[in-house]
Automatic annotation (TrEMBL):
EC number: 2.1.1.182
Localization of this protein: Cytoplasm
Residue stretches making up the Ribosomal RNA adenine methylase transferase N-terminal domain: 27-198
Encoding gene (name): rsmA
UniProt: S-adenosyl-L-methionine binding residues: 20, 22, 48, 70, 94, 113
Protein name: Ribosomal RNA small subunit methyltransferase A
Record-linked SUPFAM superfamilies: S-adenosyl-L-methionine-dependent methyltransferases
Protein family according to the UniProt entry: Belongs to the class I-like SAM-binding methyltransferase superfamily. rRNA adenine N(6)-methyltransferase family. RsmA subfamily.
Keywords noted in UniProt: Cytoplasm, Methyltransferase, RNA-binding, rRNA processing, S-adenosyl-L-methionine, Transferase
Length: 266
């Protein structure tokens, strides 16, 4: 028996886990259909499956094997009961502490209705293992989804936009109203797809790149000459007259290389 025709007991949504269970089956199908197979993976990991509304559609798709990771033990019990064929591939644990080597020796995709309170942390963790993750399809708070997908020059463009766009091509797929969830969140939601681009590594110190980007956006209303003072005293450069939201990924790489020269001169 699957979610589509099930009327039995439900998992209690837990506020401290940021749980809002998707109940709109049409949206669930659209999220799953967002997987394009980019990167030729044969395994998909769903983060936070809850009661399996996405899971049921994933299990219907051919071409890959579905795994799920769930921190809520009540949800784990529920999934074991209602999706017995999935039981060997249910990982009880926290994605933020998850070691992919134990389950995924090869590249794998990520999908899920991300808990809004830790969505940024999930992306930072994904960036750490980005060469293992060719594709991500996820739902999160609409404001964050738009920010991630925004191009330079847009007011929504921010830290996650730059860091993720450095390694992924990003598409905004669909908006989702609060009524599609139980319980309904107080915010709109959005679905995005990230597909790994051809960038193997940046032409700069990547740790310093992350620092430059974060420092630049911490005072985004200031010109970069002033915003980047915590990094060092930069020589004259046209990019320093701009604000963080005006710079592309390549511009930030250029600034990072300039910052590297400051270190070498120190």
């Amino acid at each position: 028996m699957n979610y589509k025709n099930r009327n039995d007991s439900k998992v209690r949504a837990k506020k401290h886990l940021g749980q809002h269970f998707l109940k709109d089956l049409a949206i669930a199908q659209k999220i799953v259909d967002g997987l394009s197979g980019h990167g030729c993976y044969n395994k998909v990991l769903e983060i936070g499956p809850g009661m399996g509304v996405l899971t049921q559609f994933l299990l219907e798709k051919n071409g890959f094997s579905t795994f799920v990771i769930e921190i809520d033990t009540e949800s784990v019990d529920y999934l074991n009961q209602h999706f017995p064929e999935l039981s060997p591939r249910i990982i009880s644990g926290d994605f933020l502490k998850f070691n992919p080597d134990e389950f995924f020796p090869e590249p794998f995709a990520i999908i899920g209705n991300f808990p809004y309170n830790i969505s940024s942390q999930i992306f930072f963790r994904a960036l750490q293992i980005r060469d293992r993750i060719p594709e991500i399809v996820c739902m999160l708070q609409k404001e964050v989804a738009q920010r991630i997908a925004s191009p330079p020059g847009n007011k929504d463009y921010g830290i996650l936009s730059v860091l993720l766009q450095a390694f992924y091509d990003i598409d905004y797929l669909v908006s989702v109203p609060p009524g599609a969830f139980d319980p309904p969140p107080k915010v709109q939601s959005g679905v995005i797809r990230l597909r790994r681009n051809a960038t193997v590594s940046l032409d700069c110190d990547e740790k310093l790149f992350f620092r430059v980007v974060k420092t630049a956006f911490n005072q985004r209303r200031k010109t970069l000459r002033n915003a980047l003072k915590p990094v060092g005293e930069f020589p004259e450069h046209p990019l320093l007259t701009k604000r963080a939201e005006q710079l592309s990924v390549n511009d930030f790489v250029e600034l990072t290389r300039l910052a590297e020269s400051l270190t070498s001169q120190a």
